[in-house]
Amino acid sequence: MMKKLFIISLMIVTTSSFAKSKAKVIRVAYLQTMFAQLHQNPDRYSQILTTFECGHPFRVMAIKVGDKERSVFEKDWLMIKSGGYVGYIQKEFVSDKKVRDCFNMKYSKFYDSLNLNLSEMYYWGRLYDQFNYGKSMTQGNGL
Q1: Which of 96, 117, 134, 138 has its C-alpha lying 20 to 30 A from 22's C-alpha?
Q2: pLDDT averaged over every residue in the chain
Q3: 28 found inside a domain
Q4: Do the domain assignments include residue 4?
Q5: 55 touches 40 (CB < 8 A)
């Protein structure tokens, strides 16, 4: 059992490293949630490289597969590049259009008065990462 776990982990790390080395920029995207985090691997529990605020632009990376270019792990995650970082972000947090209705942009004076430091931004970003979006699977009268 332990051997299988090790092999699977090794495959994920190898795939991520290979994908990063062969990737190229295909488009610009923007963060549409208040905060989000860039992960080292396409997993919400992986090492966090940095935290972004709403509206932050970054470059989406892709690899060539056959004749088509496609985003790596395109179902749930996007490989992105921003500044000196290359990592993964959850696809649901990303918009192809420039985001103009971010809380930090709409209410900039109030937002700036909060004086959020880096560790507070990290924890808010972590909350967004861990929250499961979607409809409830519970049964009942919708309370």
Answers
A1: 96
A2: 75
A3: yes
A4: no
A5: no
